[in-house]
């Protein structure tokens, strides 16, 4: 389908065209990206090396950090480099790859959040059957299903993008490729494709958000029968998850559940869920989680001891 298009590359306008503001964007988002890599790398390394973080919750947290890192990496490096250039272009093929990776890792993060909510539900509401229901094999299968489901979702997005004819202009008023801004450039009626986009990405975001919030309401309601200590620990974990869910799904629902129209705040909202949430997640899961902080201190202490022996 690409061969039928007259457009071989797109021009990305980015967040701003002002030279001074572009330098501010470069510094700010370089720091954001480095912070995201550092935070998620610490979580991934800690979970992989710690013997105390072997429960399903941390198995899912490992994959969430991995998906956050890849999700951010699919956008941030190019955005940072583009902030230094006067004219930023992206080839048609690179644009399609970015659409695929953005939706693949974004959808994977959504599915992992659902698995984490399911894990908390079983742990709190069915504690006697927890080890049987959430066995290592079951968790591995659930994560594998999440990866396959994300791939299917991304392939759908690519199919929709490749079905769009582009005759010009080729200027994307955004800092990355996505179906919403691409729909505005298509030289054909995009009503059906936009409807498919809303029923795909929009439905996944909305239904997942409703499912997650309902599950946490049930979990919080069931805590009334627990001891004060058990209630405090469960509340700390659940509140962390709820914060992540609201921060991620709020912007996604705003972007993907409406017609192909753009608003002035769209790019800033996109910044929040593409770069902000992957940075905030490690902070939420470490600062509010005693087990993770303890495991990180042990890992750092063990590293210092090894360095002293050398």
From TrEMBL:
Q: Which SUPFAM superfamilies match?
A: Family A G protein-coupled receptor-like
Give one Pfam family, short name only: 7tm_4
- Locate the transmembrane regions by residue number: 24-45, 57-76, 96-116, 137-160, 201-223, 235-256, 268-287
Annotated keywords? Cell membrane, G-protein coupled receptor, Membrane, Olfaction, Receptor, Sensory transduction, Transducer, Transmembrane, Transmembrane helix
Its GO CC terms are: plasma membrane
Q: Where does the G-protein coupled receptors family 1 profile domain start and stop, copy by copy?
A: 39-285
Q: How does it sit in the membrane?
A: Multi-pass membrane protein
Write one Gene Ontology MF term: olfactory receptor activity
Where in the cell is the protein located? Cell membrane; Membrane
Q: What is its main location?
A: membrane
> Gene3D superfamilies, per this entry?
Rhodopsin 7-helix transmembrane proteins
**Family indicated by similarity:** Belongs to the G-protein coupled receptor 1 family.
Task: Please give the function described in this protein's UniProt entry.
Answer: Putative odorant or sperm cell receptor.
PANTHER family the UniProt entry points to: OLFACTORY RECEPTOR
Q: What is this protein called?
A: Olfactory receptor
Question: What organism does this protein naturally occur in?
Answer: Ailuropoda melanoleuca
Q: What is the lineage of its organism?
A: Eukaryota, Metazoa, Chordata, Craniata, Vertebrata
């Amino acid at each position: 389908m690409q061969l039928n298009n007259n457009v071989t590359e797109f021009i990305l306008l980015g967040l701003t065209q002002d030279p001074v503001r572009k330098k501010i964007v470069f510094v700010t988002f370089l720091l954001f990206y480095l912070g995201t890599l550092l935070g998620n790398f610490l979580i991934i390394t800690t979970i992989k090396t710690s013997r105390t973080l072997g429960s399903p919750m941390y198995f899912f947290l490992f994959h969430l950090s991995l998906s956050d890192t890849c999700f951010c990496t699919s956008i941030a490096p190019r955005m940072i480099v583009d902030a230094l250039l006067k004219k930023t272009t992206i080839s048609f093929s690179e644009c399609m790859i970015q659409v695929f990776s953005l939706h693949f890792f974004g959808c994977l993060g959504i599915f992992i959040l659902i698995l984490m909510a399911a894990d908390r539900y079983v742990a709190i509401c069915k504690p006697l059957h927890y080890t049987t229901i959430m066995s290592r094999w079951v968790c591995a299968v659930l994560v594998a299903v999440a990866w396959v489901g994300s791939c299917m979702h991304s392939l759908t997005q690519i199919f929709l993008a490749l079905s769009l004819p582009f005759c010009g202009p080729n200027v994307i008023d955004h800092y990355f490729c996505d179906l919403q801004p691409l729909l505005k450039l298509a030289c054909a009626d995009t009503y059906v494709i936009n409807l498919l986009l809303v029923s795909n990405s929009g439905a996944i975001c909305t239904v997942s958000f409703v499912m997650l919030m309902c599950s946490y309401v049930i979990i919080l309601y069931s805590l009334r029968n627990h001891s004060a200590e058990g209630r405090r620990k469960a509340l700390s974990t659940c509140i962390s998850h709820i914060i992540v869910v609201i921060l991620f799904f709020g912007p996604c629902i705003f972007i993907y559940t409406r017609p192909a129209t753009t608003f002035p705040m769209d790019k800033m909202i996109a910044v929040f869920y593409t770069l902000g949430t992957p940075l905030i997640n490690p902070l939420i899961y470490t600062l509010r989680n005693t087990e993770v902080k303890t495991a990180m201190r042990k890992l750092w202490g063990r590293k210092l001891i090894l360095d002293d022996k050398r």
